[in-house]
TrEMBL record:
Lineage summary: Bacteria, Pseudomonadati, Pseudomonadota, Alphaproteobacteria, Hyphomicrobiales
Keyword Repeat attached: no
Originating species: Kaistia dalseonensis
Pfam families listed in its UniProt record: Bac_luciferase
Official protein name in the record: FMNH2-dependent dimethyl sulfone monooxygenase
Molecular function in Gene Ontology: monooxygenase activity
Length: 388
């Protein structure tokens, strides 16, 4: 039995236990759609783009996604030293996505949080989370990050914690949070693996649907074990790298392991993946767009978003380092889908057949490419039965 399974508290309610929760409603779509925002400078290429790290730009992206019927929005958060980002600007996803609750109606807003370091005590997370849950009426959640880069831990004065130990500590943290979100009496706790202590702790109001939505991104056995016991959505990467053919070959077995772990824990779970969509009316135009992006790629990029950046022990991106797999063009996203609207839909249908329940979409030029997706691709997804 895993450390997480041994430590896990009795099962607490999740939003999936409430048929009228926003998460339950979102999961009724055959293929959930999400927008994977860039709240920081990501300069993949010098090819022109309207993209901006600013709140206003990304708020408009989320408003449009909401209008198009998308179910999800979230963004990465990174803690890097000067020079680590492509540019100098990077908003915090916890604050930015939480703020978007007041300007949206249906879309689920998932705030990425590094939960093991920094000043946040479990009481802070529980209270902030319950507050945002009420502002968003059950549409807010946490993308749980344990931190794979040593430099991120060191910025907070920590040494990096060993990979599997991070997940065991995070399980302990979320056991505490579940109590704070659920218990009707004061709660006390003295951390076993972690430094957190609580005495007669209590928060009110409680979240509307048991607790906020929980997500984690992972590819490791320890991360999958954590997801099986705690997460509602698991954000996975292609074990075969960015090329869509390699992804389609390697995803079924990977998703099968995740579903088996969740079934053993007696919990429902949905899988998400992050394709970048490069689409135009003709195949030649789509390929020309992709090649124009490639032509503008710098010879040497910053360290910030590279899988090889700094000292990382992440498992999920190892497929991009495996020479036995077909690789993509380096356009961003975990998988690259390039083609006409019809070809894009064919690939999304194929991804769905591997077991993918939702796609967190990236676009090279986010605002116009998202509008194009809404006008040209979304109707075809409905015709294909992936949207209702």
């Amino acid at each position: 039995m895993s450390v997480i399974a041994e430590a896990a508290a009795p099962r607490f309610p999740s939003p999936f236990d409430f048929p009228d929760s926003p998460l339950s409603e979102a999961a009724r779509q055959p293929l959930m759609l999400g927008a994977f925002l860039n709240l920081q400078d990501i300069n993949i290429s010098s090819h022109p783009t309207s993209n901006s790290w600013t709140f206003d730009y990304n708020a408009e992206i989320v408003r449009l996604s909401d209008e198009l019927g998308f179910e999800l929005a979230f963004s990465r958060t990174q803690w890097l030293p000067k020079g680590g980002y492509d540019g100098e600007a990077s908003l915090d996803a916890f604050v930015a996505l939480g703020a978007m609750a007041a300007i949206t109606r249906r879309i689920l807003l998932i705030s990425t949080m590094h939960v093991l370091y920094g000043p946040l005590h479990p009481l802070h997370i529980a209270k902030y989370g319950a507050t945002l849950d009420h502002i968003a009426k059950g549409r807010w959640g946490i993308n749980i990050v344990t931190g794979h880069r040593s430099v991120e831990h060191e910025m907070f004065g920590w040494q990096r914690i060993e990979h599997d130990q991070r997940y065991a500590m995070t399980a302990e943290l979320f056991d505490v949070l579940q109590h704070l979100w659920s218990d009707d009496e004061n709660y006390s706790y003295d951390g076993k693996l972690s430094p957190w202590k609580l005495h007669n702790a209590f928060i009110t109001p409680k979240p509307a649907f048991g607790r906020p939505i929980l997500v984690n991104a992972t590819g490791s056995p320890a991360g999958i074990d954590f997801a099986a016991h705690y997460s509602d959505l698991v954000f996975i990467t292609s074990p075969g790298g960015a090329h869509i053919d390699s992804a389609l070959d390697t995803l079924p077995a990977h998703i099968g392991r995740i579903r088996a772990a969740a079934a053993a824990a007696g919990r429902p779970i949905k899988t998400l993946i992050n394709p970048i969509i490069i689409s135009r009316d003709t195949e030649a135009e789509a390929n020309a767009y992709a090649q124009a992006i490639v032509a503008g790629k710098p010879v040497a990029t910053s360290q910030g978003f590279s899988p090889q950046a700094y000292d990382s022990d992440a498992h999920a991106w190892r497929g991009r380092l495996d020479p036995s797999h077909k690789q993509g063009l380096g356009l961003g996203g975990n998988i690259e889908i390039i083609g006409t609207p019809e070809q894009v839909v064919d690939k999304l249908v194929a991804l769905h057949k591997t077991g993918i329940d939702g796609v967190q979409l990236s676009f090279y030029d986010f605002a116009p490419d998202l509008e194009y997706f809404g006008a040209r691709v979304l109707p075809l997804l409905k015709q294909a039965g992936l949207r209702v």
